[in-house]
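re: that complex we talked abt at group meeting.

here r the seqs, copy pasted straight from the sheet so there may be weird spacing, ignore it
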Amino acid sequence: MNDLYHSVPARRDPAPADTLAQTLGWFSIGLGLAEALMPGTLLRATGTKSSKSMIRAYGVREIANGIGILSAKDPTPWIWARVAGDALDITTMASRSGGAGAGVALAAVAGVTALDIICAQNLRTEQERPRQPMRDYSMRSGLPRPPEQMRGAALRGATLREPALVDATPALSAR
Amino acid sequence: MKALRWHGKKDIRCDYDVPDPIIEDARDAIIKVTSCAICGSDLHLYDGFMPGMKHGDIMGHEFMGEVVELGGDVRKLRVGERVVVPFTITCGECEQCRRGNFSVCERSNRNKNIADKVFGHTTAGLYGYTHLTGGYAGGQAEYVRVPYADSGPVQIPDGLSDEQVLFLGDIFPTGWQAAVQCDIEPTDTVAVWGAGPVGQFTMRSALLLGAKQVIAIDRVPERLDMAQAGGAIPINFEEESVLESLAELTGGKGPEKCIDAVGMEAHVTRSIDSIYDRAKQAVMLESDRPHVLREMMYVCRPAGTLSIPGVYGGLVDKIPFGALMNKGLTVRTGQTHVNRWTGELLNLIQDGQIDPSFVITHEVGLDDGPDMYQTFRDKDDGCVKVVLKP
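got the structure back, here u go
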């Protein structure tokens, strides 16, 4: 191996917090779509007595949150936004529960909230990890002389515009 | 033999029980691969953005090596010769090949019927790529079968290392073609989006072809450093406004020539259109993220040229065609007609005008290939270009 080149870097962890954040982003979008498109079904399933329009609004919030997580360079604030949204969901469900399935639904939301908090904390931990030193490629020009002296070098003594057709003329005239 | 094979999205493995290739046609050759590379367009397969991959497909379309076996009709090559193999498979006989339009060879794609349906007309077969382009086994392996071996492979003279000539098979001619397509004038500013391997060669090609000013747009400091070493003015789009910086560098008129060396997986920035693309792509309403195309159409000087070597695979959305049309912009694109350029580029290398090995940052064995896919994809460890040694 040439000394100029680096060998394979140490195997890295697959950044589990990033992966979890992406998963939560997709979960947000999925849940948001369900809330926006079929609020009645969700209200029945979770045993919550609330208005459909409010559930739709929650759905829009979830979708926006999911897009934010998937699009942001740093999804941490969006994950914390999910935690705030979870708190709102739990409050709504706890104050307006009245049907079968309410307990299970509350437990599920609490579980997802715990995941959100773990994800946000892990993202912060990964951000605080020391970064690898930057490689120095400032001498890698690939050119034999300073760039300013190489300007137009390929044109000197050669015609390098669009190349001549290989043998198009006979091919076309034959048709 | 040993080979890197695709087993699904983000799942490339080094398999040790892959059958050796055999001569299937009288125009075939078998090449013992001495060096191969991971290309940015391999990442579209790795990331699962390119349809038509199958479990067990051998990856890789940048490779070179030694001829070890020849079919009966191959007169151009000899066993033992060193060759670089262009990533486009070309018959050398169809009308498009005769015109020098090698990347749209009419015969080499053995899944022509699928390509006809998807693109309207077939394009050339490619090594180690989707089955839309023939599903040919790739060169990230110990051995590879090269069809039409009397047409594509480029014989390498003694005295040149693998590292100096390997990129004649793809990224050097790709960057070169991108610059040539711009018809560069000595007064031109050429802005290049993407300082990856193709972008690096594009910038040096633009310089060698006489551009007054070359500008590199990226966000990775190491890549911008490498671009600057090659004479480009760097713009880090995470730290400064591309629009404002280009305006400042061109007296408010915009670059005459804009080159997209990014393609379908443009980095998701905080711009509205970029987030929009990501969301639409996520729900499969758009296949590619064309942020760079939009930006080029907006900033390019009227009557300028857009050259697009970056790979796009399907459908894009919200393209400002009004700007394109009213500003009278010319668009040039296409996969690379590699064999059009290999002769003159080999001359440049032999003359010492450029040493393409500058771009190699990592060189490892084939076994480490799967790890390097991730390193390259994540631009980790200063990774710009990976060469694998089977």
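couple things i noticed - The CA atoms of residues 117 and 305 of chain B lie 30 Å apart. Chain B has a mean pLDDT of 94.
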